[in-house]
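Cross-posting from the modeling subforum.

Setting up a comparison between two proteins and wanted a second pair of eyes on the formatting. Protein 1 (sequence, then C-alpha cells):
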Amino acid sequence: METMKWENGEFYLLDQTKLPGQAEYICCRDYKTVAEAIKRLSVRGAPAIGAAAAYGLVLGAMGLNEEEPRSFLAGLESVAKYLSATRPTAVNLNWALERMLNRVRFDASKAPEEIIEIMIREADSIFREDLEGNRKMGYFGLDLIPQGARILTHCNAGALATAGYGTALGVVRAAHEAGKKVSVYADETRPLLQGARLTAWEMLQANIPVTLITDNMAGYLMSRGMVDLVVVGSDRIASNGDVANKIGTYGVAVLAREHGIPFYVAAPFSTIDISLESGNQIPIEERSHEEVTCLGGVRLAPEGVLVWNPAFDVTPARLVSAIITERGVLRSPYDRSIKELY
C-alpha cells in the first residue's frame, strides 16, 4: 500500500486509523484536510508527516488568490504555521515546511503558477529522498542484525510511517531480503495499538514472521532469552543523542539494558534536532484522554477518571546502542558523532 500519493492536483493519504480492517484513501483538496489527517493520526510517523505537510503546503499555495510575491509568501507562511501546529514533537514536520518555504523564497520573484510547479517538484523530492534514505538505512543497519535475529520493535516505524520501506522496519526488511531469516516481536503499543494494527499487518504483508505481544510482556520475553535486539524509530533526536519516540519506548530501553540486549534507533538524519542540547527540551505532545479510556468507541474506564496521555517519551542517549541513519551508523558519544556527520 502507498502511504500517500499526488495525482492531478489532488493529494491522497492512506487512512491508517482504519487499518488493518479497511484500506481507504482520504482525498485532500486543501491544506486543512491534510492538517486534520495529521492531527487525527490518519497519517503518522515523523517522516510521513513531513512529506504530507510538504504536499499540504502545495495545496495551500494552490488555494491562495495572491499575485503579488510578498503577499503570496505571507499567505504560504500562514499555511505553514497552521500545518506546523498539528503535532509538536516530530521535528520532520517543521523541517519539511521550512525546506519548502526556503525553496519558495529562492524563487519569490516568479509568478505563483511557476512557484506552485516548483513546490510540487520540491515535495516530490522530499518524498523520494525519504524512500531512498530508508533503503540506505536498511543497508547500514544490516551489519547490526545477526543471522536468525529475533527483533523486538515498538509502535510502527515501517512503510506506513514513511514515504515507503520504513526506518526501524526498513532495517528488518533489509535483513529479510538479505536472507538473514529474521523474525519480529511487535509490542501492541497502547493506547492506539499501532504495533498490533500496523506493524503486525506490515510484517505479514512482507512474509516476515511476526509475533504480537502486549506491552507488559516485553520484560518477561527478554528474561526468557527470546530477544536478540531491539530496533525502534524516532520522532526527534536531540544533539546529545537523547531520543523521543512513541510512549513506552523508554521502558523497553531500560529493559533491554537490564538484559544486555542492544537497543538501536533507526531514523532519517532530518530527525536530529541540533538546536536542542538534550531530550529535556523536546516538546512532548499530550493527546485526548479518550484514547486511553475508550477503544474502538467502547468505553473501558469509568466516567470521570483522570487520565494522563503523553504521546511520546524520551530515552536517554546512555541507553541507545547506536543510531542508524541514511548517512551511516552513529555511536556514542553522540554529541561528537552527530557533529562529525553534520
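Protein 2 (same layout):
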Amino acid sequence: METTPRRRALGKGLNELFSTEVLDFDSLEEKILTETPKEEIVEINLDELRSNPYQPRVVFDEKSLEELCQSIKEHGVFQPIIVKKSIHGYEIIAGERRVKASRMAGLTTIPAIVREFDDTQMMEIALLENLQREDLNPIEEANAYVKIMDAKGLTQEEFSKIIGKSQAYVNNTIGLIRLPNEVKDLLIQNKISMTHARILSKISDKDLIISLANKVVNEGISVRQLEELSQGADVPKVQKVQRKLNEESQEYKFIEEKLCEHLGTKVRVYKNKMEIKYSNINDLNRILDILKINNLEK
C-alpha cells in the first residue's frame, strides 16, 4: 500500500509505531511494551528523571495523583514508563503521572524502557498521551495543537484528521488562545464552560470579553444569552458570522455545537436525523464510551 503524504509527514520513526490513520497513544505504548524483552526493562532512579520538555500539561489533578499514589503503594507501578537518554539522566517520554505519583509514594526507583525519539516525536507523544487520556485543560490543549502544527507544518484540516477530531473542534480549541489571561483562568477553573469560552474567543475587544465573562460567572447567563449579547448591534467589535438560518435550523445548530464539543467529532442534526462522524473502529468505540454504550469489539 502506498504511504500517503499525511502519513509521511508524521516522520518515519514514529509512523512505524502506528497501524491506523488516526494516532492512538495506547497503541503506541502497547506496541513498545509488547516488543520490549523483559530484560530490557530497567530500574531508573527517580532523581535521574526530568519531564519531557514538550509536555503540554501544566496543571496536574492532585486528587487523581493521590489515587494513583495509593495504588502504587499497594500494587507497585503497573507498567514501565518510557524514557529517552539525555545528557544528564533521562527525559520522560510517557508516564509523567506515574513518576509524580511514585515520588509521592516514597519510591526511589521506577521501571522504565529506554528508547530513542527525536524532538518532534517527543512532542507528538506527549500530546497524544495527554489528549487521549483526557489530562489537558482546554488552554493546554490549544497550545499543544499549535506547537504540533507549527513543528510539522500541518494545516488544521490535516491535523484534525491525524488526531481524530473534527476540524471545527480544532479551530474552536485553537481560538481559545486569543482569550485574555483572566478569562483563560476562569475556563481552567471551570467557572465558565468551553462553549461560553468559544463564543468569547470570537470577540476582538479584550475588555468586552472580560466583561461578558464576568457576567457568565456572576449572573449565570446561558450560552444562548451570551451568543445574543456577543452578536448584538451595540457590540461593534464582535467578529460576526452571517447566518441564514430559520428558527428551527438555529436550534439544530446549537445542538450540533454542543454534541460536537461533547463527542469531539463532527455531528449534524437535520430533518429528524442525526449523523455522528467517526474515523475508524477505535474512534467509534471512543464515542460509544462517551455515550455509555458497550463498544463493538468482539
